[in-house]
Amino acid sequence: MAHDVAALTVELAEMATADHQSAVRANSDDPAEQLAWRRLTARHGDRLGEIMDEYGWPTAELVGEEASRAAWLIAQHADRQLDVQRRALRLMRQAVSAGSASPRELAFLRDRTLVNEGRKQVYGTQIAGVKDGAPIPWPCEEPERMNELRAEVGIEPFDEYVAKFSIS
Fold first, then answer.
1. Rounded Cα gap, residues 61 and 73, in angstroms
2. Inter-axis angle of helices 82-97 and 65-76, nearest 10
3. Phi and psi at residue 14, in whole multiples of 5°?
4. Is 83 exposed, middle or buried (0-12, 13-18, 19+ CB in 10 A)?
5. 155 burial type by CB count under 10 A (0-12 exposed, 13-18 middle, 19+ buried)
6. pLDDT digit string, tens, across residues 129-158
7. Is the alpha carbon torsion for 25, 26, 30, 31 positive or negative?
8. What is the pTM of this model?
9. Under a CB-based contact definition with an 8 Å cutoff, are residues 48 and 92 in contact?
């Protein structure tokens, strides 16, 4: 088991590295690059499903902080695999309740899954587009409480968050 966990830790980290290197392709003007991104995230989503079958949510206690964050990133980018996202969300929610996963990461995954389901997000973490140089979030359930809810899970206020994306 220890060897398997060590191999899993390395595998998750390598998947996150490949994700980071390929992410620029997600919004490329080149359909071939977009397709390469979709194939990579689908392969990773399939593998995360297998990992969840065997280990449940890969917590930091199991695989270390970096690999656990990698698992979250893979779930976050499994946009065309709602079953994987929903399952990751369920397992991650249990891990957060047990104090072994990040409430902040859970909030991002919850919003991403809600948006992918065509529903309103909670924390305003998912950006729909940019208008007049300002990022616009996908619709939120309670926009007036968004910053309060963000603070509860350790996410900076919306204005500070979107300043990172602003096109000046």
1. 17
2. 140
3. -65, -35
4. exposed
5. buried
6. 888 888 888 999 999 999 999 999 999 999
7. positive
8. 0.92
9. no
